[in-house]
Amino acid sequence: MGFENLRPLAPDPLLALMGRFRTDSRDRKMDLGVGVYRDAAGETPVFQAVKRAEGRLLHTQRTKAYLGVEGDPAFVALLGAAIFEAGRGLPGLQTVGGTGALRLAADLLARSRPGRRIWLGTPTWPNHAPIFAAAGLQMLGFDLLNPASMRPRPGAMLEALQGSAPGDAVLIHGCCHNPTGIDPDTAAIEEIAALMAARGLIPLVDLAYQGLGSGWQQDGEATRQLVARVPTVLVAASCDKNFGLYRERTGALFVSSPTRAEAQSLCSHLAALARTSYSMPPDHGAAVVKTILEDGDLTKLWSAELEAMRGRIGRLRAALAAYGDVGGVDLGALAAGLGMFAMLQLTPQQIDRLQAEFGIYMAQSGRINIAGLAEDDIDRFVDALRAVQGVG
Ligand code: LMR
User: Fold this and answer.
1) 294 C-alpha to center of ligand 1: Å?
2) Phi, psi of 48 (to 5 degrees)
3) pLDDT single digits (tens) 329-378
4) Of 13, 63, 99, 230, which residue is least crowded by CB atoms under 10 Å?
5) Top-confidence residue, 138 or 154
């Protein structure tokens, strides 16, 4: 009793799409929805490096006793060293995936300044705004896309941030922008970092796809630039895609602050926020990542597997781009993108038809997960695009 005012809510659209795909009995269906890597056989395999690390843990792990609110500090230090360069890791704590890191960061921003504002370019991952709203942040959206071409406008963020005030936070996609796949180039990141430093803004970097765009080092470059130039930066890192640990919910939140004392203070608040939410993060995924990153051979194996995934995504992207204009959908533009995602200029009706008539599942925004395609699906996918547009 007492819940009469709550009406049932629709499920999250992307997760609902995943459910509909599972129950579709058609043989040649294609899942281009949720951002999960698939190999040529349509599988999301466990990395060999992960399997080997799990094998070691099976034999060496002596206890499942609590680790603590911050999770495993050794995992945080190793991941931090991999992202920010050895010896230059940042303080932080282990989180429940990248989403948990984003929520903790949003809670910290709201707790330290009630009514804090956060800027976010749209389109973005559909869960960003609900996370920030749940934390009580005030959101200021700006349009990343050129309405005529539906392609990202390079100066959109700089232009929008002319209206920013000191202490505002800004959501930054660390690499492989979700959903457009288009990242600012190095010069643009330098300008963005300089503007943020000059105006006293706080970047909140969502780093969920490192290693799937141009390579691990290059994909971390924008984040490192921001950390080098802007006094306060929060970095939400996820190991879901780049270690294939999705369901293990493995991530970390890193804090870069002007002083060590402030960083420690912020981490103490993050720990308190975690304690009142989920108490402590799950260990298994972090233990696997730690085992890989502290062993040279396992790191080499993991890195080669990640490179192979990146290579496959790049080849699929190039194969799609080679079709150029397909009845008004500019597949050629995909060549400029990085990572798993791209946006196609399709109407909601065309997206519905792709699903109903061809078993092709994609987000209602027009986002496709390129990594969901099998090589021999590409022709059929392009034919279906033509069909829903009434061409050829
Ligand atoms: C996605 O954008 O598809 C992924 O980040 C998965 C998710 O949780 O939505």
Assistant:
1) 28
2) -60, -40
3) 999 999 999 999 999 999 999 999 999 999 999 999 999 999 999 999 99
4) 63
5) 138
SS3 187: helix
pTM, to two decimals? 0.96
In the chain, % helix, strand, coil (3-state, to 5) comes to 45, 15, 40
89 or 201, greater pLDDT: 201
pLDDT at residue number 392: 60
* Pairing of β 325-326 and β 329-330: antiparallel
Round the average pLDDT of the chain to a whole number and report it: 95
- Exposed (0-12), middle (13-18) or buried (19+): which is 41, by Cβ within 10 Å? exposed
300 annotated active-site:
no
Contact by Cβ (8 Å): 251, 101: yes
Domains and CATH numbers, the chain: 13-46+302-388 (3.90.1150.10), 66-294 (3.40.640.10)
Residue 206 annotated in active site: yes
| Closest ligand 1 atom to 33 CA | 3
Percent of the chain with pLDDT over 90: 91
Compute how many other C-beta atoms are within 10 angstroms of the C-beta atom of residue 313: 24
Q: Do you know the residue count of the chain?
A: 392
Q: Are 368 and 341 in contact (CB under 8 A)?
A: yes
